[in-house]
Amino acid sequence: MSFQWSWRRSRIGFTLVKYLITLVSLSVILIGCSGGGGGGGAAVNPAPVITAGCSTTFEAGDYDPGGFFIGVHTGTLTATDSDPISFSLDVANPMVAGPMPTANGGSVMLTDVTTGAFTYTPPAGGPRGTDSFPFRVDDPTSFSTDTQTVIVNPKIMPLGDSITQGVDGFPPVVQADRIAYRLELLNQLNTAGFFIQYVGELTSGINFLTAAQFLHNGYGACEDQHIAFGGCNASADGMLLDGIFAELDANPADIVLLHIGTNPAMVDTSAADTRTILTEIGRWEDSMNGNPVTVLVARIIDRLPADPAVATRNANVDAMIAAGPMMGEPWPDQVIFGADVDMFNALYSGGMPDPALYPMVVGTAIHPNQDGHDVMGGVWATALTGPSKPAILQACP
Questions:
Q1: How many Å apart are CA 342 and CA 298, to the nearest integer?
Q2: pLDDT tens across 162-182, in order?
Q3: Cβ distance 391 to 384 under 8 Å?
Q4: Kindly report the CA angle at 183 between 177 and 188, in degrees rounded to 5?
Q5: Is the pLDDT of residue 21 over 70?
Q6: Which of 58, 168, 200, 345 is positioned for an S-S bond with 216, CB 3.0–4.6 A?
Q7: What is the pTM of this model?
Q8: Do 88 and 95 form a contact (C-beta atoms < 8 A)?
């Protein structure tokens, strides 16, 4: 580009002016914003939020405390979501109703995949204790998984003589009122969240205990050797014709509460028959129909007035259990004894049996009154829920 200059019509010259024009390319970036401000892309749909559940039930083929036959246990899986949800028993696939096997031998089936309603069937004949099954919850775009817990209530066999049955003086209370320690123990366990079922061939206390909870094996007038091998028919309150092995075959138990030795009139201080009871329970545990058993061997209560032979017997039984089984002897899976189940001292006060815990009778009192039975129930409950608690006894969180 140039300019020419003139003065009074005369050309003077010109100036060349050069311009360099640079073109700059501009890139325009368009940013799209979704509604609600900030963040790119579509909103994320959160997965369903599951509330893991736990419930308890009785074993298949049993009667619950209300006397109703237990076939299946019903429950509902729970989850929350802003969208419609469905449930599945297959964590890899949606809306699978089952039936599906559970971790401990039961089975589960969804009766409604939209509500999570399910039926659980415990394994007939055991094992009892904690069972579980996985499940899945789906919404239209996502899913969550979790585990449901079902506790099949363990079975407890109260085992012993008339004290286990609930006789408490003269004249003795009628059969329908004989609850012994069993009602207090049941109440304390239930309050702590533990649910159990009593088993046995005898019944008493039906005025206070509901169906299936008034069962026991408390044989009046029977002795420890009878518990081991049978043959006791001295009492109309219950005849023990078979030993503990056969009794467990007929009424399997996970926990045995043993308080035995107050009969005969002269207390036998030997621990030999208690050892035999333990080996018979261990033998059943190892048999075809057996299962692991925890046995609580109580220090038996004293008589009123005190009988020194009772304390000697308790010491001998403690020493025998502490020494453990002899070579080749089958013993139960767990034995709790000694201070953990000390009925002897629990019913003592001021260095002697507490008269307030024994009935007012003429002569020697060998049974506690109901207050004494309730103290015993508390001792059992503390032992069952304390540091040595049987593993099978579980509570829902």
A1: 6
A2: 899 988 766 778 888 889 999
A3: no
A4: 160
A5: no
A6: 200
A7: 0.85
A8: yes
Name the token pair of 270: 């030997």
Q: Quick one: DSSP state of residue 304? A: B
Angle in degrees, 0-180, between the axes of helices 370-385 and 182-191, rounded to the nearest 10:
40
Strand partners, 170: none
Read off the DSSP letter of residue 333. Answer: S
Q: What's the DSSP call for residue 40?
A: S
Pick the closest to residue 390 from 337, 340, 334, 324 (CA basis).
Answer: 334
Contact 60, 49 (CB under 8 A): no
Residue 237 Rama label (left phi>0; alpha psi -120 to 50; beta): alpha
Q: Which long-range contacts (CB under 8 A, 24 or more apart) does 309-312 make?
A: 309/266, 309/267, 309/269, 310/261, 310/262, 310/267, 310/344, 311/344, 312/269
Minimal CA–CA distance to 55: which of 74, 69, 79? 74
> Which tokens go with 308?
């020194």
| pLDDT tens-digit readout, 262-279 | 787 778 899 999 999 999
State pLDDT tens for residues 64-96. 666 666 678 999 999 999 999 999 999 999 999
Sign of CA dihedral 85, 91, 92, 96: negative
Cα separation of 215 and 184, whole Å? 15
pLDDT digits (tens, 9 = 90+) for 278-314: 999 999 999 999 999 999 999 999 998 899 999 999 9
Gap between the Cα atoms of 175 and 166, Å rounded: 8
Tell me which residue of 197, 231, 333 sits closest to 278, measured CA to CA.
333
Tokens 């099978």 locate to 392
Tell me whether residue 371 is exposed, middle or buried, using C-beta atoms within 10 angstroms of its C-beta: 0 to 12, 13 to 18, 19 or more. middle
C-alpha count within 13 angstroms, C-beta hemisphere, residue 31: 5
Q: Please tell me the distance from the alpha carbon of residue 47 to that of residue 221, in angstroms, as a whole number.
A: 65
Greatest alpha-carbon pair distance for the chain in Å reads: 160
Residue 65: how many CB atoms within 10 A of its CB? 18
Q: Residue 204: name the closest of 232, 247, 163 by CA.
A: 163
Beta bridge pairs of residue 348: 353
Is the sign of the CA dihedral 342, 344, 349, 350 positive or negative? negative
**What is d(CA 391, CA 397) in angstroms, rounded to the nearest whole number?**
15
How many whole angstroms separate alpha carbon 227 and alpha carbon 242? 8
